[in-house]
Amino acid sequence: MSDPFATSVLRVEQPRRGPFARSRYKVMDGDGTVLAVADENGERGRSEKLVTLFPGKSDLHARAVLLTTRDGEPLLVVDKEQGRMRTTVTRPDGEVVGTFHTERVGRRYKLRDGDGKPLGEISVDLGKNNFAITDADGKRVGHVRKRFAGLATHLLTTADKYSVEIEDPVPEPLRTLVVTAAIAMDMTLHESKDIT
Questions:
Q1: C-alpha span between 86 and 38 (Å, rounded)
Q2: Pick from 114, 44, 104, 102: which is nearest to 76 by CA?
Q3: Which residue from 64, 112, 124, 181 could staple onto 41, CB 3.0 to 4.6 Å apart?
Q4: Could you tell me which InterPro entries the record lists for this protein (predicted)?
Q5: Cα distance between residue 142 and residue 110, in whole Å
Q6: Position 185 in a domain
Q7: Whether pLDDT at 148 is above 50
Q8: Interatomic CA distance for residues 187 and 192, integer angstroms
Q9: Domain at 88, CATH number
C-alpha cells in the first residue's frame, strides 16, 4: 500500500456535528482531495453521550479515532487517554508508532517513539492556534495552524479546520506524528467548547 500522506501539505477538518455525534475528521491534500477519514473508535454509553450534550470539560474524557483510507482500510488509531497527559498513535495491529506527552498543558508536548525515545516536541502559541513541531535537535519539521472559522462557528459548533505543513524529508515515526498532530491537538485542546 502506498502512503496516503506522501504530500507535504495537508488539511484536517472536523465537520460540524450535533450534540450526540461522534468525533470525526477528514484529512485532505492541499487541493481538497480526501485522503483519509477518522471516526470515533468504539460505542458510547449513555453517560458519555450526556457529556457530549453538556460538554463542560469533556476534553478531559478519553477518546479515540480510527483513521482509515477513503475505502475504509485502517491506517492508524489516535487514542487520547483520560485527561490531557498522553495521546498514543498506533497501527491497526496495536504497534505503537509514538506518543504525544503533555509537558505543559496547552503549551508544550513531547513526542516519543514506541519505545519512549524522544523524537521532538510541539510548542503552542498563547491562542492555541499555532503548533510548531521540531525534531529532537530543535530543527523545525512541521507546523499546524488552526484556522478561524468565524465567531458563531467557533462558539456554537465543534467544527475546526487545520492546515498542516511538513518540512520533508522527515524520518519515521516522527513524520506520522506530524501528520496526526492536528487530530491529537484538537482532541486534547479543542474537542469540546467549554460552556460551563
A1: 19
A2: 114
A3: 64
A4: Scramblase, Tubby-like_C
A5: 14
A6: yes
A7: yes
A8: 8
A9: 2.40.160.200
Distance CA 48, CA 14 (A): 19
pLDDT in tens, 157-188: 456 899 999 999 999 999 999 999 999 998 88
Which helix (H) or strand (E) segment is 61 a member of? none
- DSSP symbol at 70: T
The answer, yes or no, to whether the previous bond of 118 is cis (omega within 30 of 0) is no
Question: Both ends of the chain: CA-CA distance in Å?
Answer: 45
Distances (CA, A) of 178 to 45, 107, 111, 135, 164: 32, 16, 9, 10, 8
Q: What pTM did the predictor assign?
A: 0.83
Q: How many residues does the chain have?
A: 196
Q: Does residue 58 have a pLDDT over 60?
A: no
Q: How far apart are CA 25 and CA 144, in angstroms?
A: 15
Phi, psi of 68, rounded to the nearest 5 degrees: -130, 160
Q: Is 156 left (phi over 0), alpha (psi -120 to 50) or beta?
A: alpha
Q: Which three cell numbers stand for residue 99?
A: 506518543
- Whether 196 is in a domain gets the answer no
